[in-house]
Every structure is written in structure tokens, then in C-alpha cells.
Amino acid sequence: MHKPQDHAYPTHWEADVVLRDGGTARIRPITPDDAERLVSFYEQVSDESKYYRFFAPYPRLSDRDVHRFTHHDYIDRVGLAATVGGEFIATVRYDRINDQGLPAKSPEDDQAEVAFLVQDAHQGRGVASALLEHIAAVARERGIRRFAAEVLPANSKMIKVFTDAGYTHKRTFEDGVVRLEFDLEPTEQSMAVMRGREQRAEARSVQRLLAPGSVAVIGAGRAPGGVGRTALRSLLESGFTGRVHAVNHAFPDDMQRLQPEEVPAVRTLREIPDPVDLAVIAVPADSVPDVVRDCGEHGVQGVLILSSGYAEAGPDGRERQRALLRQARSYGMRLIGPNAFGLINTAPGVRLNASLAPRMPGAGHIGLFTQSGAIGIALLSGLHARGPGDGGIAGISTFVSAGNRADVSGNDLLQYWYDDPDTDVVILYLESIGNPRKFARLARRTAAVKPVVVAKGARHNGTAPPGHAVPTVRVPDSTVAALMRQAGVIRVDTVTELIDAGLLLASQPLPAGPRIAILGNSESLALLAYDACLTEGLRPQSPRVLPSAATPDDFRAALAEALSGDGCDAVVVTAIPWVGEGAAVSPAGSEGAALAAALRTAAEAHPEKPVTVVHLAMDDLAETLAAPAPAPAPAPAQSQPPGPAAPARSEPVRPEGPAPASARSAEPLQPPHPPANRVRPPVPPGPPPTLALRRPDPARDAGAATPPRPRPAPLRIPAYPAAERAVRSLAEAVRYAAWRREAAEPGRVPAYDDIQEAAAGADIERLLDRLTPDAPTGRSVPVPPQDAEALLARYGIHTRPVLPAPDPDTAVRAAARLGYPVALKTTAPHLRHRADLGGVRLDIAGESELRRTYAELTDFLGSPEELRPVVQSMVPRGVDTVIRAAIDPAAGAVLSFGLAGAPSQLLGDIAHRLIPATDREVTEQIRSIRAAPLLFGWRGSQPVDTTALADVLLRVSRLVDDHPEVVGVDLEPVVVAAHGLSVLGATVRLARAPATTDLGPRRLPVY
User: What would the DSSP string read from start to end of 744-765?
Assistant: First the structure.
């Protein structure tokens, strides 16, 4: 029934997945070489599990069984195994059947019977759910549309695996057996379930790294100094609450403890009797594989590799890095690095500093991820300078510097921080994005509940940084920035801006709008702030300038008045050292502390509005504002107003976790609660509080407990030494708050009845087989024009017919077939879409005019062989536009729109949106280009049909989103008339989808 080549081993089905408990497993097809592994696996399965699988006692597999379960054609019979340490922990298989439930004889049969078996020791880890996702994807690839499974009623765990997957299913009971049938077409619910499981599993895997109960530093030298010894000292000086071991094969046999640290010292991990959760590896690269093997055999959960000499060292190092990743994942371990700087967790119950940082940062609520150790040092140092100590404005919750990020990446940290109650603001420094589709999805979801601030390195040189095996960027950096902003990401350019924005977002509520009040005792500084507001698109009020000798009480009164006004959404306070006799401050230059106290007093009365300070030569003001406010003295009883006390102004409140020590302890993750970040305390009537935090998600929030009460936090106000820096950070907060309000109603991706998704998928598969029989994955090829038109028509995008005209007689026949009037156009690459060069002749009314125009065209521009003329019928007059969609490695799937010709090609007036785009986003995209007035009746012209234009944009978005093999669509020109539009030219490019696509079953990337 199938050709011999159909039996080739499908390497693209191999995948590493994160399981429910945070460990990893490898999923791969079963081969004949797995016979012994299968027998060993089956021997470790309990009799009860065997009974559930075969509906009868089945103590051992016969030789015939082993042969059947290890020999597959990878078409009608497929078996997958989940492995850890090279050994099976679970299997799944399907057999194609016909409508009578018998083995299929025809490739048209699209149903299969599926069965699982999970080793008892690994049940409850989510192995079966992961296998179901992958076997379903394999079945769809092989033309199977439905699964059937027969399960004993007592096997409730397996029934739950099927029913909880989110597929449309039917359940029947007959002859003592539950029969489940379900369609394999992904549904909105199945995708939500899969991504919810992915988030919980990946968050748990990061939590295990950040909250270990025990750490072994492998490579800690006997003498002070060196990377290993430095990491050990950092770990001890941080006050780590768990167990610590120093490991070095060069330690003497009689050495029990490493001095002067008094740390237990061993030669190998095997000498440690207790479990080790995290191994910090600081040995030469050549020795790392042996160390990782020891870690895997000892059951270590994760490894942090500080050693260098990998992908940053060249091709040989890159292969060494990939082998290292395969080795670590084969044991179910996550890996940070290699060439990493380390990780930090400031939670009181952990106090982990497994890094080369010289000091433990202060505890706070900023989460940091960097791919560069140098930038990590700069961020930690910059934050320390702005607010040292626990509870200061610049305190962090967790920090990871992943180096070459062979495994753990920024995406993993976004999964963890998404519902981490101790992280209010996420700061990322990225030099490359390995899975841009997934990054955009995770960033958008995280930004809906807490700010995500990103600085992107390696923006302009077109090459990936050393050690980062990812494709290079093809779109301008301004496009990447715009797309990040569409996903809610706050994009900045420098480390300083990362810190500036992070401090304001971590300490202040989001502004309700762009109206800014400015006050201070320096007219010049206030005017600088005013100009900066205008530059950033804010709406500043006229500055209120206080006398140069204004006292702290004057500042307090002015700030209180500004905050109480209805026309103000935020306040910028400018301050210089005041000059005057009899100033009511303490001696010894303590005016900064007095002013800080006054500003705090005024701000506390209006917790719903952000305040930021610009100062010159008042470092004590900045230091006092950055530190936690001192506890207020008890007020006299008679001074208390009746009724409940007004809420103290606080930083964005956070829910308390179920454990008193820290929500980031080593306990299992609790059901996620909506983070309380950015929730404002109750305020008197006035401007409404802004921003719901999270849209309901039944798949994620099912079973969530009642959100815990918020805990108050001390008031801190960010201070900046330059007005431009303060205003830029405030402007980012204003834009982010506006995005949050819009994200509450993001629009929808329309469901079109006339889209033929399955037929388009079949067309794409046939085209790829024909056009790319030997092409590697990822290399794109153009689709022939006729096939491109047919593929677009599957999605309701119809192009005007174009007929070749290699000579005048053929042109006349083509025009007669299409009907006059017609257009005569050249399709040579150097003249395509260049009406200004004479390559397009319009409104040709008859045969004689067509022959004359044909002669003029060829006489002026070249021979027909060079020009490749075509004939096309005329369409109603309108505005020429261009629509494109492409897959870019830095941004993911991108939908682009602009006016054809000079506006887009010369001026770069193009608007971009991430795919899938919603109806609201597409409407905004059309209006966002600078030349948009030409579409809406500029200077008395007739407005064009932008509704039809939005419809085509949405259809192109759906095509690319539904089929990752479509890597390029170009519609040019699209003539938009007063009623309807016409697509006059279209090209499509296809490529075999890489295994790391974000549209398939969850899997860890391989870089």
C-alpha cells in the first residue's frame, strides 16, 4: 500500500518535553533495536497496569509481541516511546483501522486505534498527556483524523488523559468496556489545555532550578580563587538555606571538609548520600560530559554550567554544546548555560546565589534574565547603585544569566514569572530569540498581567552572537520593536533604560492616561521635563515653578494639589538644592531626606497616581526615596478619622503564597492565582482604577483557589538625574497602560466558512513533495503562479487572471479571452510593478491599440524574451496597496501592509502586525501608516473599501498561521476601490516547517 521509502525513520518526530514535575523526557519513534528496552520496560510495569492495557493477565511479552511492538511502517502502524536515561518509561502506539475496526487496507481509512502503557513509577508525571499530543500530531501527518481507544472502566487515569485533552470526543459503554472516539483536529480548548500544561511544566522546571534543597559545586578548587571556588563562596555568603557540597576529584582521600568554608568535600557525587537538586559545574569543557553523566546517574534535577569552550568557540564547540544538551536531557535534567554567569533567588526561604556575582542583590520584585554575563553584571551593579538592600526600590526576585542558553532560555523564565507572585516586573536582555513565535505568544500573555521590559542586542549586524545557533534577523530593527510593542513588550535600547523603566514600573501604579503635571523649584529643569513630555507624545500641563527657596512643606502642598486634580494622571517633581535663609531643614545637608519625607506624605494620600522625581545634585534625596519608608509612629487616638482606615500607598500589591516563607520555595506549584501586580487599592471617587489583570482562561484557572489577600508594601518613589530619563520611563508606562486597556478587548480571529484548511494543507504537501524532494528543512521555494493562485483561492483570496503574451498575436487572443479593456504589463524582475518606467500600459480598448502598445513596449524596453509581457483585464480605479506575510527569525510570523510604490519602497511606510492578527489589530494596522489618509478620502477623493482590505489581511494571516510551511505571501498590487478590491499579482513561498514550530505539540527547542 505504501512505497518502500515511506518506512524511513522519521527523525523529525523526536522531541524533548518537560513533564508535569519539571523533569524532562525524550519522545522518539520505536525501532527494532529497542527490543531489549521494551522487554525491560514491561518487566517493571505492575500486573495491574498490564491488565488495564491488555484486559487480561499478561505477565510477559512473547517474541511475537516484541516483534510487533518494535517493527512499524511509520504510516499505518506507529509506536512512540518516552525515555529517560535511554530507558523506556512509557509507550504509545496506533494502528490504522477501517470503519469495522479491522486493520486498514486502504490509505483512505482515516481512523486509528491508540493504546498507552506507562511505567508505574512514572505515572502522575504527565507522560501520557505528552505522548498523546505527539502521537496525535504524527497521526494527522499520516492522514488520520480520528482516534479510538478502548479502556476498562476502572482505568480512570487513562480515561482522564483522553477526556481532559480538549479534543471533541464521543464516549460509549459496551460489553464492560469504555470506548472513546475523538477527532484529532486541534480545537481552541485542546490548544488551551496543551499550552496550560506547557506553562505549568516549564514553570515547575525553572522553579526546581531556582529553589534547590541541595547544591553541589563541582570543580571547587582547593586554593582560593578560580571559577568554582568563587561560585562556592557566593553561595555560602548569600545565606543559602539548603545543603552545600564541594566536589573535586583532586581532593585528597582523607579530606572531609573544605577550609576555611567548612563545607563537606567529596571527590565524586557518588560519595554524597543525600539527593542533589542542582549541580554547579566549573570544570574544563573536556571534563564536563563525565560530570554530567555522574549528575544524571545520581538523580540531579538540573545543572548550571559555568564552563566555557562551547558554541562561542566555533563549529567544534557548537557540536560539543549540542552533544552536551542531548546528554543532559537524556537524564531528564534541565541545563543553564554553558558559559553561564549563574542564577540568583532572593526569597527568604532560599537565599540562593549560584553565580559569579560578588554580592547578593537586595530582595525585591524585579525578575532579570540575560544572555550575557557582562550585561548581567551591569544590570546587577546598576540596580544595586539605585537601591541597595532588601526591600529597596531596586530589589530583585530572581536572576538568570544563561550564557549560550543551550536549554533554559528567556521563554522558560517567562513561563515561570507569569504567575510568580514575587515578581512584578520582568526585565530581559536578549541577543537572539530561538523560537520567535513562542516568545511573542508568551510575552503577550505575560504582559497582560505584569510589565515585560526588553533590550535587544545584536540588532543591526545581521549575525547571531557567538554561541547562539539561531537564524539571523531579516527585518529592520524598527519593525522588531514595533512588533514587540504590539505584543505588549516595552522595548528599550540600553541597559540604563532597562533599569530606569524597571524601577518605575516596580514601584508605581500604571498611569490612567498621558496627562502629566510638572512641578519643582527650578524653571529650567521643569522646562526640560515639559519638552521631554512633548517629545514622548505625552500631554504635559504648564509647569508649576516653586520659589528656589521652597521648603519641603511647599513641595508637599504642591504635590498634594497636583495629585488631587482631575486633569492629572501622573506627576513629575523636579528638585535642586534650595537656597534661602531660615530654611526649615536640619543641618548637615539633610534637605534631601526632608524633601523625600514630604513627597512621600503627599503621595500616600493618592495611591492611584504615579509620581517620579528628577533631581540635580541631591543624591541623598534619591537614596532616601529608593529605600523602604520607615514605619510611621503611632498616631494619637483622637486624630484617627471615623470609619475604615485609608489604604497606605504601596508598590503594586502581590498575593501571599500558601507558604509563609516564600512562594518560590521548593514546594510544588500551587494552582495559579491572578497576580495582583498593578492592582490599586480602593480610592475615593474620581478617575477609575485601570486595567483588569487577566482575561478568564478556564483551561488555566480551573480549580484555582480564592485569590489571597494582598500584602502592603512600603512606598518608594523612583528618582532620576535627568529629566529625559524620568519622562521616557513614564512614557513607557503610559503606553503600556494603554496597551493593557486595549488588550482587555483584543478583537478576534474570524472563523470563515469558506476557508478550506484541510484541502490547502493537502495542496501544500503535494507542492512540497514536487518542488523540494531533496531540499533541507527551512529552505524556501517559490510556488508556480497557477498553483499559488489555487492555494490562495482555498482561503478566499482570488487573483485576477494573468495570461502570457510572448508575441502580439498571443496578446490579442489573451485580450479577447479576458475582454477589453486590458492592461499590458512586463514581468521582468527589474521592471515588475514599475509603471513609472513604462512597463505597465493601462486601459487598452481594442486590438489595434493593443498591437501598437505592444510594439512601443518592445521597441522601448527590450525584446519579449526580456520583458515577459502579460495581459490582464482592467479593474476599477482605486488605491494601489501591498500586503505581505513572512516568517522572520527575530519576530516570528509577520503581516505587513502599505501603499504600493514609493510610500512603502522609498519611505518605508509599512505597518506590521504579529500573526495571527485579530480584526481589531488589522483595522488599526490599516490606519497606522502615514499615507492612510489616501484610503479615507484625502482632499475630497472618494474613500475606498477598507472593510474588504481588512478581510484580505485577515485571510492572509489565517493562511500563514494555519500552515507554517507557508513562509512568504506577497500580494502586489492590491487595488482597493470604492467597492471591493482586486488582487492583481501574487507570489507564495513554501518551506518544510521546522520541528521547533510553535503550532505543533509542545517540545523543547534544540539550538
Answer: TS-------TT--HHHHHHHHH
pLDDT in the model for residue 468: 55
Find out whether 395 and 503 touch, Cβ atoms under 8 Å.
no
Report which DSSP code applies to 799.
B
Nine-digit cell at 301?
534535577
E-strand stretches of 783-940: 802-804, 822-826, 840-844, 869-873, 879-888, 892-899, 910-914
In angstroms, the CA 145 to CA 167 distance is 12
- Cα torsion 595, 598, 600, 603: sign: negative
Query: What is the enclosing helix (H) or strand (E) of 54?
Result: helix 47-54
Using alpha carbons only, how large is the chain's radius of gyration in Å? 32
Residue 826 and residue 860 in contact, taking contact as beta carbons nearer than 8 Å: no
**988 phi and psi, to 5 degrees?**
-135, 140
Q: Write the pLDDT tens digit of every residue in 586-638.
A: 433 478 899 999 999 999 999 999 999 999 989 889 989 988 766 555 544 44
pLDDT in tens, 738-749: 999 988 787 899
Residue type, 1001: P
Cα atoms in the 13 Å half-sphere on the side-chain side of 317: 18
Q: Does residue 98 contact residue 109 with C-beta atoms inside 8 Å?
A: yes
Confidence (pLDDT) at 693: 32
Q: What is the mean pLDDT of residues 6-24?
A: 90
For residue 980, the Cα-to-chain-centroid distance in whole angstroms is: 37
CB count within 10 Å of CB 757 equals: 15
Mean pLDDT of the chain: 86
Q: Is the pLDDT of residue 25 over 80?
A: yes
**Taking the model in full, what pTM does it have?**
0.83
Distance CA 433, CA 812 (A): 53
End-to-end CA distance of the chain: 37
Taking the CA atoms of residue 417, residue 419, residue 422 and residue 428 in that order, the dihedral angle to the nearest 10 degrees is 20
Type of residue found at 384: H
Residue 877 backbone class (left: φ over 0; alpha: ψ -120 to 50; beta: rest): beta
Helix (H) or strand (E) holding 430: strand 425-430
* Strand, coil or helix: 118: strand
Number of Cβ within a 10 Å radius of residue 188: 10
CA–CA distance, 711 with 652 (Å, rounded to integer) = 10
Q: How many helices (H) and strands (E) does the chain have?
A: 28, 41
Q: Which residues of 559-585 are buried (b: 16+ CB within 10 A; e: fewer)?
A: bbebbeeeebbbbbbbbbbbeeeeeee
DSSP H helices, 306-464, are: 315-330, 373-386, 410-418, 436-447
Q: Is 382 exposed, middle or buried (0-12, 13-18, 19+ CB in 10 A)?
A: middle
pLDDT 10s digits, 235-285: 999 999 999 999 999 999 889 999 888 999 999 999 999 999 999 999 999
Closest to 795 measured CA to CA, from 834, 756, 737: 756
CA distance 177 to 943: 65
Q: List the one residue out of 226, 239, 75, 56 whose CA is nearest residue 143.
A: 75
Quick: pLDDT tens for 651-684: 443 333 333 333 344 333 333 333 333 333 333 3
Helix, strand, coil % in the chain, rounded to nearest 5: 35, 20, 45
Measured distance CA(801)–CA(627) in Å, rounded: 70
User: What does the DSSP 8-state code read for residue 502?
Assistant: H
Average pLDDT, integer, range 511-524: 96
Give the H or E element holding residue 429.
Answer: strand 425-430
Least confident of 29-33, 394-398, 657-661, 818-822: 657-661
Q: Per residue in 984-1005, pLDDT tens?
A: 999 999 988 764 456 678 898 8
Beta strands 515-520; 892-899: pairing state: unpaired
